[in-house]
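Because showing beats explaining, we think one record worth quoting, sequence and backbone structure tokens together, and here it is:
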Amino acid sequence: MNDEPSTEPYPDLEVGPNEDSAVGVAGIMHAMLPALDDMGIGRTAKLSLKINQDGGFDCMSCAWADPSEHRHTLEFCENGMKAVTWEATPVTVPTSFWAEHSLTSLLDKGEYWLGQQGRLVEPVYKPAGSDHYEPISWDAAFALVGERLRALESPDRAAFYTSGRVSNEAAFLYQLFVRALGTNNLPDCSNMCHESSGTALTASIGVGKATVVYDDFEQADLIIVMGQNPGTNHPRMLGALEAQKRRGGRIVAVNVLPEAGLIRYKNPQRPRGIVGKGTKLADQFIQIRSGGDMALLQAVSKRVLDAEDAAPGTVLDHEFLAAHTEGLDAFRAHLADLDEAEVLLATGITSQEIDELADAYLAADRVIVTWAMGLTQQKKSVDTIKEIVNLLLLRGNMGKPGAGAAPIRGHSNVQGDRTMGIWEQMPERFLAALEAEFGFPVPRGHGRDAIKTVQGLRDGSIEVFIAMAGNFVAAISDTDASEQAMRRAKLTVQVSTKLNRSHVVTGEEALILPVLGRTEIDLQGGVPQFVSVEDTVCSVHGSHGAIPPVAPGLLSEVAVVCRMAEATLGGRGASAGERIETPDPRASIPWTDFECDYDLIRERISRVVPGFEHYNDDVRRKNGFELPISPRVRRFDTPSGKAQITVNELEHLERPAGRLILQTLRSHDQFNTTIYSLNDRYRGIKKGRDVVFVHPDDLAELGLADGQRVDVVSEWPGQPDRVLRAQRLVAYPTARGCAAAYYPEANVLVPLESAADGSNTPVSKAVIVRLEPVAGA
């Protein structure tokens, strides 16, 4: 196993103590100093005053909601400003770069180095057999895409990926193009993150979205934050949590690792956050074992039912349950047999900790449960989220102020993309409306999600892969297998702003098509255009670029989609020289008009997507508009018309002797696969990323030491081991029996076949690993 020489890619790595508070003065400095250094005073000032403002641009770093009223002058967080700095840098990739750097030489470059090369400003093409990209004209690039797509034996031999930063307008046109081509192969980043949330919520309450609005957080008596790190991933949420605490509410954090933002928040826009101690947020921290969330939720629900049995008619919301739910009796019978010993083994906590959480729930009239990928990337993630719904329904915590279910999305418009049709299995209602609006037969068969796309590339049934933004090969699980699969494609196309790993791992032919960033003014025919996004609580608002493009000749995402579609579908319906009486309607979709005027796109959306009937008017209102979400008014679009209280079988995640349960996670200076720096300030890591966090007692039990170098080896039945080499052990207060390593580097340990039941999401939060000392390290 250790016959290869080990390397330390970060020789200057420093490890210090983890922090117990978030933001504060340090947050301001880490946000603004890099911005001033990279962009200058004028550019920084202009952008910082426009981000998340009415008439400004939407931050690309998360999907957290904006306040409905009383926005701050500076309505952004540390990582939001880092995202702006990363995109709005004036540094560009020169033409000479492509001749100077072969793809082979770029394989050894990390995500941080690639991103630091600057903005992409010209389309480039890698011919088959070449190891270099070379500049290509826009017209030639689009003609090549059209030729390769039309040459396919079937449209299903292409897959069209979407990242959640793509706007509503571009996403709607992209799925229109793909379905006009004749396929539903629309994998997206949600397949890898919150697919489990949508699957569970749709089955339980009829819609896969949050049932709360922004103001509900302040009104909640209790907020339970599960598998979520808002201090890094959506820091502006901390302001909403602080407002709830000032009003007298309680917060319970459920996580494998202590997260600084949920311990104490130093609000930089309040004196207490600058010179004081800040605000303690979590009243209770339940340090749960990886995979134990479902057992915890069932144990709390059982205590609620026991309390009702002890005082009949005083605990459950019987009126709500009778009118709006079904399944209570079966649920009650199922939990009657819940084994407390199994719960304690699964969770790694005590009965007293569960009692404390149950007492807090019973004392609260209004409860929100909020979660992120700590829950969605487990094997039983769908059932776990169904258990969240079960707990909320028992006391009517759905469809009233200050209460409900709140999955917190990461990408700024991942939810809007799904609303616009970016999904491989859109419901019939959407497909029928699209067909009626545009007049072509829309395909009905389910397409391929992210994992199935990799499998299709691997077995040769997918030949063309096109990505609207994102970094697919770095984001998806099983890195080595996924990269090998991508190299089997005939053509890969990346629509991007900056370099990443997916530009280096290509098919036989490859294109990079550079686009405008969200910060940049989008002029079409001299007329400024704007786009729109949907945040995590289903509020839709406009996003207007604020600065000129970094270089001439860049196209918008909308323009790239329109021109790809025109090059592919424009001549459809008749062979050369053939005259037909009834042209194929796909050939008459007005792509050129859509590119010139985004209002025309929104007009079409208004006739296809429910809730957008007055799109062009509503999106121009101050702060935009909220989509109608049925559970908010206690209407449930399930087959029976009632919310489902479900029975879910508890499965205990076994940890073999000498093994740990590993989860992947992001560092603080990171957004998805984008690395802003090599530091993780809150966890005490500087100048490196090759670390694995392990409890000091587990290190002692395994005969290992803090600072030691180990190979992290994942085990999957019937398959060869996967290895992440030469990681530095960091003694860290994670839950016993658990470990953590950085994403995307640790994706190499997650088997492609390891996917959540029901959602097919990669199981990145429950990887069985062993740690093998590196010889001589």
The mean pLDDT is 93. The first strand starts at residue 14 and ends at 15. The first helix runs from residue 24 to 48.
